[in-house]
Amino acid sequence: MARVIIFLTIVALIAGMVGCNDHTSPTEIRDWYDLDAIRDNLGGSYLLINDLDSTTAGYTELASPTANEGKGWAPIGYYDDLFIGTFDGQDYEIGDLFINRPDQGALGLFGSIGEGGVIENLRVVNSIMSGGSHGPSTAAIGNLVAYSLGTVTNCYSSANLSAGWYTGGLVGYNGYLATVSNSYATGSVKGSTYVGGLVGFNEGTVANSYATCNVTGRPFYFGGLVGCNEGTVSNCYSTGTVTGMADNGGLVGVSTEGTVTNSFWDTETSRITTSAGGTGKTTTEMHDINTFSGATWDIVAVADPSTRNPSYIWNIVDGQSYPFMSWQSVS
């Protein structure tokens, strides 16, 4: 018996050593060439170690308006070849991304991420994207992710998007069991159906997030935060203008099977008084901490925009600002 125990112990130690050797450090992303190479290993772990923009090596060839015969950036991952790895932006920015692919869907920095895929702590700014204009067969565009079955958290998007179906400032299509949290989007979003300032179509979870995007859609289902909600939305808000023909909402355009709790939109800045979920508030009320603390948000008042209390998800300058993420930079 003692020999058996010793043998099993040795086997366990060897297995542990092998397991340790299997753990590799994340691949560092320092330029557009490194970023483009992610598509060669969609299950890897990646770490952005500096900002990427139009001055970074590889931009002209891979992400500029002249790249790929004028189509610009080729999104990482597709519907049948999903990104299932981890990408940590470490609060750095990826800027000046250009995409013009009118006959293509799944357009964004990442085209599609699958279950287990994680994108976190990343800022995608000053993007210009257009495409997916021929209906649902070529649908989904999002500045960060077009089609997600994974997790997006602590991310920010600033973009000018123009597309067809399933268009979102951050994520185009947030699928069942997918999550968007602690994130926000600014800029402008334009599409035909299922258009949202943060998420175009939601089947999963959207929590502790907001959008200030100006949203334009026609003919159906567009909202300041989410175009169509069939999942859950909680502790969120939106402030952007919402313009279109029908089935539009200050926060949510349509919510057929979903739930919306503890969420708000600004009826003055959005210029719309109806929504398929959420509560409309005046700008003054949206600057009042009591609006949000009364809805059990994890929020605290701070003295000014440069002050942070990271112990809370949300910070606010009471009476002066909308709530903002405790991690974000506010001018």
Q: What can be said about this structure in brief?
A:
The protein is mainly β.
Key terms:
mainly beta; 331 residues; six-stranded parallel β-sheet; disordered N terminus; single chain; globular; 21-stranded parallel β-sheet; Pectate Lyase C-like
Fold and architecture overview:
- This protein is mainly beta and 331 residues long.
- The chain has a single domain (25-286), classed as Pectate Lyase C-like, CATH 2.160.20.110.
- The chain contains 6 helices and 30 strands.
- The protein has helices at residues 2-22, 32-36, 59-62, 267-270, 283-286, 289-293, and strands spanning 27-29, 45-48, 86-95, 98-101, 110-113, 118-131, 141-142, 145-148, 151-153, 156-163, 165-168, 171-174, 179-181, 184-196, 199-202, 205-207, 210-211, 214-223, 226-229, 232-234, 237-238, 242-244, 248-249, 252-254, 259-261, 264-266, 279-281, 299-301, 314-316, 324-325.
- The strands form 3 sheets. The protein has a 21-stranded parallel β-sheet that branches.
- Strand 26, helix 4 and strand 27 form a beta-alpha-beta unit.
- The longest helix has 21 residues, at 2-22.
- 49% of the residues are buried.
- The model is unreliable at 1-22 (pLDDT under 50).
